[in-house]
């Protein structure tokens, strides 16, 4: 073997030192902050006479039709709609190519909010549906009927492929409309939406003008009447307005959007779980008590051990306020909930956590920050292959505009961040692999700006990081 000369020894030393400096740089600085430049336009709500808000024609025609999963397994569906002139029928007529027409009867409710009185809000649960079947359904029986359809999910099982859409903080601006259109035209074809909170932003209007809840219902109908959206409550659902005499939190939201919380043993509609295909989805509430001994805490403590990963390998958590967020907006708002629940997420190997609230996009590495105990000073997130990836997808496009201001330097845990409006899809292939892609509204429908192959934490817990290391 040839001996190294002095000059080559020096060169080797330089390479070693350089390598060390470079590796330090990787540790100290985070992933990628997008350099994408967008047109600076103000985000404004669509006016009330926009075509997307059009009231369907006909006397007492059902409007704001929306569906969501109605049980824990996906064999039931909640159909909701609003009639304006009179209560009308609560009946949903439904059928598939293989079954005769059947009827399901629901209930009607109304509410008042300050000087606003709602229309007649109908909720009807259809049960005992067959898996993986296209059904047609009709609402508005008696006067003006309207027909829609949906496809039930496949039976729950470990290798069942399924594609979820991800939308958050949608609102009803011109940008919101672009986001929804991009989701609808995405060739990845989401089969159900995981919605991470902040629906209508009606509370940004004087007196929380609930007419904007109605317009939002009509705007989103073109998607949510045909595929279920799984709801998470955000801060814009609270509608707590003591100055208006409105002191019951979540009043418009809970009257308009029902979820199957009782099916998962929850005692309130703000935290619950559903199984869908090969995924187990846990919805949490950033705006309900979550400290020790609270109903949400006790429920989650019982809930996590129930998740059978050999039945549903993919464990997904939805919440509104992110735990990891390197923007200068809503900074640390999720911190208290993180302190309470993060050790459980690591213990139970949650695959991914989706949150909204910050009006931008960010994806984290698999990291945890559970070592801190007040006195030891260990308070920096570390890479952790048992931890979830945290994704902030509050970029639906509401009137409050984009969060563009980021903390610098980008923290090591942050893999990718960009202040653009968009949506994502989480495409489960089998028990080991899922393809995740984020789409920005300025691009063509098929373009994914940020993507990642997720390796399942239970069946394939190897490093799926997208960073160089
Ligand atoms: Fe929010």
From TrEMBL:
Residues covered by the Purple acid phosphatase N-terminal domain: 62-150
Catalytic activity, reaction form: a phosphate monoester + H2O = an alcohol + phosphate
Database matches in CDD domains: MPP_PAPs
Domain called Calcineurin-like phosphoesterase: residue spans: 163-361
Cofactor(s) essential for the protein: Fe cation; Zn(2+)
Purple acid phosphatase C-terminal domain ranges (all copies): 387-446
Keywords, comma-separated and alphabetical: Glycoprotein, Hydrolase, Signal, Zinc
Annotated EC: 3.1.3.2
A Pfam family assignment: Pur_ac_phosph_N
Domain of life, per lineage: Eukaryota
Family per similarity comment: Belongs to the metallophosphoesterase superfamily. Purple acid phosphatase family.
Protein name: Purple acid phosphatase
Species in which this protein is naturally found: Prunus mume
Taxonomic classification: Eukaryota, Viridiplantae, Streptophyta, Embryophyta, Tracheophyta
Name of the coding gene: LOC103335709
């Amino acid at each position: 073997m040839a001996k190294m000369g002095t000059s080559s020894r020096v060169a080797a030393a330089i390479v070693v030192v350089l390598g060390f400096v470079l590796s330090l740089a990787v540790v100290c600085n985070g992933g990628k902050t997008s350099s994408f430049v967008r047109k600076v336009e103000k985000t404004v709500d669509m006016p009330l006479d926009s075509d997307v808000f059009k009231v369907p024609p006909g006397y007492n025609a059902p409007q704001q039709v929306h569906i969501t999963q109605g049980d824990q397994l996906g064999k039931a569906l909640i159909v909701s709609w609003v009639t304006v002139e009179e209560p009308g029928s609560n009946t949903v007529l439904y059928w598939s190519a293989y079954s005769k027409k059947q009827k399901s009867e629901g209930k009607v409710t109304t509410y008042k909010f300050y000087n606003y009185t709602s229309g007649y809000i109908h909720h009807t649960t259809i049960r005992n549906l067959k898996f993986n079947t296209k059904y047609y359904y009709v609402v508005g029986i008696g006067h003006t009927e309207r027909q829609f359809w949906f496809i039930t999910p496949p039976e729950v099982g470990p290798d069942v492929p399924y594609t979820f859409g991800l939308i958050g903080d949608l609102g009803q601006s011109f940008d919101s409309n672009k986001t929804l259109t991009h989701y609808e035209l995405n060739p990845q074809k989401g089969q159900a939406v995981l919605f991470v909170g902040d629906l209508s932003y009606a509370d940004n209007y004087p007196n929380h003008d609930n007419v904007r809840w109605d317009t939002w219902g009509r705007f989103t109908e073109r998607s949510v009447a045909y595929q279920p959206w799984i709801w998470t409550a955000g801060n814009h659902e609270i509608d707590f307005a003591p100055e208006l005499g409105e002191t019951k939190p979540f009043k418009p939201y809970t009257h308009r959007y029902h979820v199957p919380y009782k099916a998962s043993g929850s005692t309130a509609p703000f935290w619950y779980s559903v199984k869908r295909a090969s995924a187990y989805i846990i919805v949490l509430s950033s705006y309900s008590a979550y400290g020790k001994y609270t109903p949400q805490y006790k429920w989650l403590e019982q809930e996590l051990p129930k998740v059978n990963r050999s039945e549903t390998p993919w464990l997904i958590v939805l919440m509104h306020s992110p735990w990891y967020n390197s923007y200068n907006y809503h900074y640390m708002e999720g911190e208290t909930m993180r302190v309470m629940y993060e050790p459980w997420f690591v213990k139970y190997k949650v695959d991914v956590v989706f949150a909204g609230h910050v009006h931008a996009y960010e994806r984290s590495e698999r990291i945890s920050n559970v070592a801190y105990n007040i006195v030891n000073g260990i308070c920096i997130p570390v890479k952790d292959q048992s931890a979830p990836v945290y994704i902030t997808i509050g970029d639906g496009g509401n009137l409050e505009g984009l969060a563009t201001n980021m903390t610098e330097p980008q923290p090591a845990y942050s893999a990718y961040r960009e202040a653009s409006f968009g949506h994502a899809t989480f495409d489960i292939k089998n028990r080991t692999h899922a393809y995740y892609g984020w789409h920005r509204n300025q691009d063509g429908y098929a373009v994914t700006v940020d993507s990642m192959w997720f390796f399942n934490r239970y069946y394939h817990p190897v490093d799926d990081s997208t960073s160089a290391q």
